[in-house]
Design brief:
Layout (H helix, E strand, L loop, with lengths): L3 H9 L4 H5 L7 H15 L9 H18 L2 H10 L7 H4 L3 H8 L5 H11 L3 H13 L4 H7 L8 H13 L7 H4 L3 H25 L3 H14 L8 H9 L14
Length: 255
């Protein structure tokens, strides 16, 4: 079995444990856990396409091993000093990393989602996500609505107003796909939304869901059709606001 650093280089293109988690060397224990959570969500075997499960499983296991190093005061100190890690024994390498992950992080509930939606709408974070989506989608409103978290067809008018203001301020370019979008495309988007809503309501009635759960089912179904399952709505929510369980590790990490 390859060493941890060899696995990191093979799977992530670097053997820098901090770089893989997207954090700095002087990051706190809380930031280490947050970085691990965010990256592990993207490669969780249950969130990727079947053909990518084997690679995702390897990445997920490697991330667990990385976290076990950086969350341990003594092991982290050795890594910071030497750049090396002591490879764990077979028992450590073969542990159930999914169970380990669930011990660290709570499950997202519908109440969490509602709370996040309320705080996220009209926030600076949503604005930045909207600007990013506009650039990446080159002004295509279909792509923007699919990309911005919590967004539905009801947000289109609000997004349009915001984007026009940003264009006037020259904070974003004026893409023809946005400023010259025809009535036909807008009508098609509306019909698509209405069809999805009707389908979700029918499915909800079949299994006895209430309106809130119907909305959740619609969003889940919509997200499942995207190419990048790792970027789905609920993964993004978890990565952004899930509160880790309290870390029982005693002592602070030296910076």
């Amino acid at each position: 079995m390859p060493s941890l650093l060899e696995s990191c280089q093979e799977l992530f293109g670097t053997d820098n444990l901090y770089e893989i988690l997207g954090i700095e060397k002087d990051s706190s224990n809380k930031d280490v856990k947050k970085g691990y959570h965010k990256v592990s969500l993207k490669v969780h075997p249950d969130r990727v396409h079947t053909e990518k499960k084997e690679e995702a499983t390897k990445k997920f296991q490697t991330l667990g091993r990385i976290y076990s190093i950086l969350s341990d005061k003594d092991k982290r100190a050795v890594y910071d000093e030497t750049g090396d890690v002591e490879d764990e024994d077979i028992v450590q390498q073969d542990r159930d990393w999914s169970d380990y992950w669930r011990l660290l992080f709570k499950k997202v509930t519908e109440e969490d989602i509602k709370s996040f939606q309320k705080e996220y709408k009209d926030s600076e974070e949503e604005l930045e996500d909207l600007k990013t989506a506009y650039i990446e989608c080159e002004g295509d409103m279909d792509g923007i609505i699919d990309s911005v978290m919590c967004a539905t067809i009801e947000d289109e008018a609000r997004f349009t107003k915001i984007l026009k203001q940003l264009i006037r301020k020259k904070e974003i370019p004026d893409f023809p796909a946005f400023s010259k979008e025809g009535k036909k495309k807008k009508a098609e988007r509306k019909r698509k939304h209405e069809a999805e809503a009707a389908e979700a309501e029918i499915e909800a009635k079949k299994i006895g869901l209430d309106n809130d759960k119907s909305l959740k089912a619609l969003i889940q179904k919509k997200q499942q059709t995207r190419e990048q399952a790792a970027d789905d709505f609920f993964s993004q929510l978890e990565a952004k606001y899930t509160k880790p369980k309290k870390n029982n590790t005693k002592g602070k990490v030296k910076k």
